[in-house]
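Run folding on both entries below.
>entry_1
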Amino acid sequence: MNNTLKIIFATLSTIGTLTIIIVLWELAFQPLITTDNNPIPDPTPSLSPSPTSTPSPTNPNVIGISLEQRFSSGDRRLFTNQVNRNADQGIEAFKAGNYDEAYQQFRQAVNTAPSDPEVQIYLNNSQARKSGKPFILAAVVPVDTKQTNAEEMLRGVAQAQSQFNQQGWF
């Protein structure tokens, strides 16, 4: 396999601390051209929306979810409607830097919920941390609009990450 392909595969599949960046679909895919083919002007930065504003793609609190709640570095569940005690314990161990315990908890979490891509990613992250050679990748998925779409995207990330780990490329 040539080096370029290895680099591309390593970048796409990652291993290590997978930083999952969650943004609204509208924020992630804003149109670059308006209907009259003029570029959209740079937005004026706003530190806080006015209390009378309504949610919109440019408002950071669309659908009542703050910007901080859209990001995870393995420190919290993104899909809060899913309960998995082992995943929660794994997250706590991971945050504390106890990667061996995190790995064991995430392994049990994957056995409990094998179709949950989030716990598979966290299992892979703890494995990479245990190895001492983690990579970091940001994945952007539309969790706020259709959870199933986000889960499918994360399944692809988890699968590639697992294959990367199995090849021992870290």
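>entry_2
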Amino acid sequence: MGWIKNRERLFEAAASSIKAIANNKNISSKNGIAQRPPSINQVAISSTPRSSKDIHSWRGESDFQAFWHLYHKQTKEIPLTLPARIVFNELEMSRVEILGSNKYKGSKKNILEYLEIKSINIDDEKSPNFLGLCSNLWLKSVLGLRLSPASKTLVESFNKKYDLSSLDSIKNNFINNIDNQELFEEISLDFLKKLKLLKTNNQSEEDVDDEPIESPGSTNEIEQDSLEDLGENSSSDSSLEDINLEMDDNLQESAQATDGNAIDEEIDALAYPQNDFQNTLKKDYAVFTSDFDEVIDAKDLTTPEEAIRLRNQLDNLIKPHQTTIGKLANRLQRLLLAKQNTSWNYNLEEGMLDTARLHRVIAEPGHPLSYKQETETNFKDTVVTLLIDNSGSMRGRSISLAAICTDIIGSTLERCQIKTEVLGFTTKHWKGGDSKQLWISNGSYSNPGRLNDLRHIIYKSADNSWRRARKYFGAMLREGLLKENIDGEALSWSHKR
């Protein structure tokens, strides 16, 4: 029980530690999965683990973000392909992790356990993230850090695939310039050339796995060039992209309309050409970037006036069925309480008369200790999570029913002293948003993974009281909230909370 109570304080402690280590009080923290690399002046801290055995890997997630903000300095952006960019960033993250763990000795175990978890969970050797993680671990092995068995296996596979045993000069340069970010970045570019992720002067374009992005320009310029290239290219791949582009335009108009055809919107938004869909089935799920994902409280979705209006709207939906709802709620409460263990305290001065001690009452009418009271026992270590689909297909009657049921079930569970959490999931935009724009600006790399900006909503946390949280349940009925459905990641997020 002591560990469970301390978990509530760990998040705040981690956020404070990051600010202290990075010597930057302007860093903001949010609940979520940490990004690699972290955003400027922002960190994401995942929910505290339910077991103390996972505390080191959880702290490692916080430590690497603190070291990034401490040792990494913003430099001019170098145009790279997505695989090259991931490897380049991971090498820099490995550098700051090494520097940080040398200064803060206890963090070394945390970071290595955190990377071990990532090593165990990654299995697609063709993924850019696989290359990035291997590069990170390879640099640590070069500098003599003792890796876990899972991490060693990745490094050995990486060494064998790219024949890195002959890179003594690059290894020595990495070791000698670990403190110098500018020189380290130059060496990292040489390393990318060895991996054939960056074109050398004597290489033809055919020798390069992916063409790097041309000189940096505005997003609008890149999009315009891409559209012109699509128009000029007559290959089958170009035709397929043209079809996708037309589909996106039609879907944008459909998403902006406020008619009730939300199911068709969502089905079309997830449509793929048949060949692409068949290929996608054979690939592991991937995420292009989660930098633009957000976890937001329901109260931040509405103004105070709008929250009151939407709550009244929900109350009006509940009112015609109040009698039936009350009966169902009471029945549910009886079923739950029937499974609850109860006990009695005896020999009390007040309460119910203890019939087992009636002889004492008769013999000594003035005896004060002849009463008993029933004690309520909470359902220990139990939290019920209600995860609400806030996608476009729920628009209309479906979301109204979901809101009503949430209100009924949640209030009934709360009456039975069962902690309740109400969460929702949707996306910030239709068809990608900021993630898709970043993908386009990075050269529209094939098979990028998820390009949607997730929006995970907390209507009520387990520690928040029902009385305070219920006023924001009406936010489910807010026009414009319901967009796309990324349910797999929502289930994972709610499970980790």
